[in-house]
Design a protein that fits this description.
Distance between the termini of chain C: 48 Å
CATH class of the largest domain in chain C: Alpha Beta
Number of domains of chain A: 2
CATH superfamily of the largest domain in chain A: 2-enoyl-CoA Hydratase, Chain A, domain 1
Largest interface: A-C, 25 and 26 residues
Largest sheet of chain C: 8 strands, antiparallel
CATH superfamily of the largest domain in chain C: ATP-grasp fold, B domain
Shape of chain C: globular
Radius of gyration of chain C: 22 Å
Number of strands of chain C: 20
Strand order of the largest sheet of chain A: 3-4-5-6-7-8-9
Structural class of chain A: alpha/beta
CATH architecture of the largest domain in chain C: 2-Layer Sandwich
Radius of gyration of chain A: 25 Å
Strand order of the largest sheet of chain C: 13-12-9-10-11-14-19-18
Oligomer: heterotrimer
Chains: A alpha/beta (293), B alpha+beta (146), C alpha+beta (453)
CATH class of the largest domain in chain A: Alpha Beta
CATH architecture of the largest domain in chain A: Alpha-Beta Complex
Number of helices of chain C: 15
Strand content of chain C: 25-35%
Structural class of chain C: alpha+beta
Shape of chain A: elongated
Number of strands of chain A: 9
């Protein structure tokens, strides 16, 4: 085997030279060389290491398995709205504790500090490739994106603002459902927001809802499902009740992909599953087609 | 040399794999020769040579066994850790029975711990590296006998 | 100076870099894919690490494996060679985050110059002549059409993120503009994920002249003269030479522009500025922020070891020579010997090298990684090696190259050896009468060699 002759010769030469070279530890760790913490993290789906900053630049999509990670509301706005055109509205709301739940106020303050936002929803005026709209985004990092009085009020106000300005509405949803700590006040928001959607629609204005992972509970059962056009991100959990409750209630095993965007699209609850890379372009096309003069 | 010594010498000679022995002393000489055994190698002038022949036989047998073992190779470059944390017990040891999907070891890269799971069920036959060593892509870390 | 360097590449350039490191007393770490286990660069390096499967995307392009290998082996610097990760700003930044010196410019400079329309903008601002065209990227097809009318047809529609001739279309007249624009745009989106486009006037069959520059960390920039790489086939260079046949006056004007361009972006390490030359005019087209395949011809005429200079610059040394110390002596020609069959549309011909005979002598150099018995893997590009000669003048260099090519024997795979020989015999080539359209024009003639294998 001629190949191994050269390989063997050079290997033998290397080995004999190693003996004469001063002792050099194979795996010595040069103190200056090391991977800093916080550079990489694990993708929850494929378990591969992803570079945090690169993933952010890649719109929080895992480059190995295409898993769409959750993102902050402000990042979603930056990826969707033309730079410099976003004007935030509806600032200054304060969350109260109407049912005097223990620890609720502390929890709110905790999340305010951690996430640096006031509540789980933000909205404002923005342009998508030049087409104006009102955009609202839920932030699942704030108390799981749960809908309480403030979120419900802000959602309603965003529709009212859109009616005032005669603009279409785009909402990105991500929520664990109605906020338990505010009880009936949270459930009431379902009715309030649905009414706002209806009044906005009576003015023949377009409302696109984009369901992202996870969208569940009272949000699914109200304004999220009322879009004129309903889009969803790939493989997002979209549902109302939790899968275990459903299984126990109907006494059957749930089918593969149950409560995921593609399943809903198949069954007609979602109009189109759109990859995050194509989202801005899709929204632009829809808004452009529906623009009013 | 008396007869008993000669008989012992002949017996030793018979049992050994050398085929020619000549001893020359002051007043005594003896020469012993036998048929060259078919399997002895031509370099058999030292007593050590037969040992080498024996050893050459054994690895062939071992390789046959190795082919039946499932090799668990490293899917990336990183540092091998046998346990989930420095002070806990290792995931597996030689001889341990594992099921498909059990965590065998961790390869750390970029400060992310990658758990490597077993592709088959069986017993850990070999562990080829040590805690804290760098492993290359494709390096056979463990061998499992199914 | 570094004690250990990891070479994040393979094949001929990896061998070149490892040799330079060994000559400087630097320990070397090679990385290889499973298909490259027997490759020469692995054998001559002091240590080696397997970083993945046969395909480049699974091995030579896996940044994490390479950085981890460098850290584990204690390599303070990584030389990326050319291709692969050499112009990947993310990789450059990753190395920096981990305390590893990337032998090349910083990530932000790579980004600036790697984005072709952005590089164009920077050059315009710096006062370096560019091909007449759009000021930077064009927003949409209407703007593109307007610019095209302004600069005049024919126009070349190019992708900002492009390279290797993709994402590029020529529109010869206004009627064909729209189709050309849309096609180029979607090709760019598919190939590079970025459909930002810009426009240039299409210069018909220009000469492709590139200038080699070296810049240290202290703002000192020099140019090492130019190379003429006009002998190309489908945007791949085949024969390169230094210096070109441009006048001394043009050379000094272009050299000045090259240095000005490099200083504008605070460039560091080795780089090449590509220009189009038509008559007495020259236009900047793009900058390559890495060492190039054809660097040997510049090394032969200047006597400077560019790879060693790269390492010295990255280690923080000041350039040991100024522009006045650089003299171009003689003439050098390089031929890329590829494992391909020209008679069958240059299809790659991987296989086992059965016999290798390499000529040698005064001014003869063969930079390669093949050896008798080596099996060329099918996963990578087909370049086997580069044959380089240096002589007193161009005429002598051509004669020397022909004699050397005559003696070179590579048996076992098909090569473009005979094809290149035909070029060297061609009167137009000898007279210097060629531009980038040379091979397409003469292809039939050049394929008339005897295939004796």
């Amino acid at each position: 085997m001629i190949v191994n002759d050269l390989v063997n010769t050079l290997n033998k030469r290397k080995e004999s030279k190693q003996r004469f070279r001063k002792a050099h530890k194979q795996n010595y760790v040069n103190a200056k060389l090391d991977v800093p913490k916080g550079l990489y993290e694990k993708c929850p789906k494929c378990k591969e290491a992803v570079h945090i900053k690169q993933t952010y630049e890649n719109m929080f999509i895992c480059k190995h398995c295409d898993e769409h990670f959750r993102m902050r509301a402000i990042d979603r706005i930056n990826f969707t709205i033309d730079p410099g055109t976003f004007v935030e509205k509806g600032l200054g709301y304060i969350t109260l504790n109407p049912l005097f739940q223990d620890g609720y106020e502390e929890k709110i303050n905790d999340y305010k500090e951690k996430t640096e936002i006031d509540e789980a929803y933000m909205y404002g005026y923005g342009e998508v490739n030049g087409v104006p709209c009102v955009i609202g985004v839920m932030d699942s990092y704030f108390l799981m994106g749960s809908m309480g009085s403030v979120v419900g009020e802000k959602v309603t106000r965003s529709f009212e603002y859109a009616m005032y300005k005669k603009l279409p509405m785009v909402i990105f949803t991500a929520s664990g459902g109605a906020r338990m700590q505010e009880g009936i006040y949270s459930l009431m928001q379902m009715a309030k927001t649905s009414a706002a959607v209806l009044r906005h629609g009576e003015m023949d204005l377009l409302y696109i809802s984009v369901l992202t992972h996870p969208t569940t509970g009272g949000v699914t059962a109200s304004f999220a499902s009322l879009g004129d056009i309903i889009l969803a991100e790939p493989n997002s959990l979209i549902g109302f009740a939790g899968p275990r409750v459903i299984e126990q209630t109907i006494g059957q095993t749930l089918p593969e992909g149950f409560q995921r965007s593609e399943f809903l699209q198949e069954k007609g609850f979602v109009d189109k599953v759109v990859h995050r890379n194509d989202m801005k372009d899709t929204l632009y096309k829809l808004l452009y087609m529906h623009r009013r003069y | 040399m008396d007869l008993r010594q000669i008989k012992n010498l002949m017996k030793e000679f018979e049992d050994s794999t050398i085929h020619k022995l000549e001893i020359n002393d002051k007043d005594f000489s003896i020469k012993l020769e036998k048929e060259q055994p078919v399997f002895s190698s031509p370099i058999l002038d030292t007593v050590q040579a037969p040992l080498r022949v024996q050893e050459a036989v054994v690895p062939v047998k071992e390789e046959k066994i190795v082919n039946n073992n499932k090799e668990v190779k490293a899917p990336l470059v990183g540092t091998f850790y046998s346990s989930p944390s420095p002070d806990s017990e290792s995931f597996v040891q030689v001889g341990k029975r594992v099921q498909q999907g059990d965590v065998l070891f961790i390869i750390e890269a970029m400060k992310v711990m990658n758990e490597i799971t077993s592709p088959v069920s069986g017993t850990i036959e070999k562990v080829n590296t040590q805690d804290g060593n760098m492993v290359e892509f494709g390096e056979v870390i463990m061998e499992i006998k199914e | 100076m570094f004690q250990k360097v990891l070479i994040a590449n393979r094949g001929e350039i990896a061998v070149r870099i490892i040799r330079a490191c060994k000559q400087m007393g630097i320990e070397t770490v090679a990385v290889y894919s499973e298909a490259d286990k027997d490759s020469l660069h692995v054998q001559i390096a002091d240590e080696s690490v397997c970083v993945g499967g046969p395909k480049s995307i699974d091995s030579y392009l896996v940044q994490e494996n390479i950085v981890t290998a460098a850290i584990s082996k204690g390599a303070e610097a990584i030389h990326p060679g050319f291709g692969f990760l050499s112009e990947n700003s993310q990789f450059s930044e990753l190395c920096a985050s981990c305390g590893i010196t990337f032998i090349g410019p910083s990530g932000s400079v790579i980004d600036q110059m790697g984005n072709k329309s952005r590089a164009r903008e920077i050059m315009i601002q710096a006062g370096v002549p560019v091909v007449p065209g759009s000021d930077g990227a064009v927003e949409n097809i209407e703007e593109a059409r307007k610019v095209a009318t302004e600069i005049g047809y024919p126009v070349l529609i190019k992708a900002s993120a492009g390279g290797g001739g993709r994402g590029m279309r020529v529109a010869y007249e206004p009627q064909s503009f729209d189709v050309a624009y849309q096609t180029a745009r979607s090709e760019a989106q598919n190939a590079f994920g970025d459909d930002t486009m810009y426009l240039e006037k299409f210069v018909l069959n220009p000469k492709h002249i590139e200038f080699q520059i070296l810049a240290d960390k202290y703002g000192n920039v020099v140019h090492l003269g130019e190379r003429d790489c006009s002998i190309q086939r489908r945007n791949q260079k085949v024969i390169e030479e230094a210096p070109s046949l441009i006048s001394d006056e043009l050379r000094s004007r272009m050299g000045e522009a090259a240095i000005k361009a490099a200083k504008t972006v605070n460039y560091e390490n080795a780089g090449t500025l590509e220009f189009l030359v038509a008559g007495d005019d020259f236009y900047f087209i793009e900058m390559n922020t890495r060492i190039q395949v054809e660097h040997p011809v510049t090394e032969m005429v200047t006597g400077i070891d560019i790879v060693k200079e790269q390492i010295k610059i990255a280690a923080g040394e000041k350039l040991s020579f100024g522009q006045d110390d650089i003299h171009l002596r003689g003439h050098s020609i390089e031929i890329r010997i590829n494992a391909e069959d020209p008679k069958f549309d240059f299809r790659p011909s991987p296989g086992r090298i059965e016999l290798l005979h390499v000529p040698s002598g005064h001014g003869i150099r063969f930079d390669s990684f093949i050896y008798a018995g080596y099996h060329i893997p099918p996963y990578y590009d087909s370049m086997m090696g580069k044959l380089i000669v240096h002589a007193e003048n161009r005429k002598e260099a051509i004669k020397k190259m022909k004699a050397t090519l005559d003696e070179l024997v590579i048996k076992g795979v098909k090569s473009n050896q005979e094809f290149c020989y035909m070029i060297l015999e061609n009167q137009d080539y000898i007279d210097g009468n060629f531009n980038t359209g040379y091979i397409p024009r003469k292809i039939d003639q050049l394929l008339e060699y005897d295939d004796c294998e």
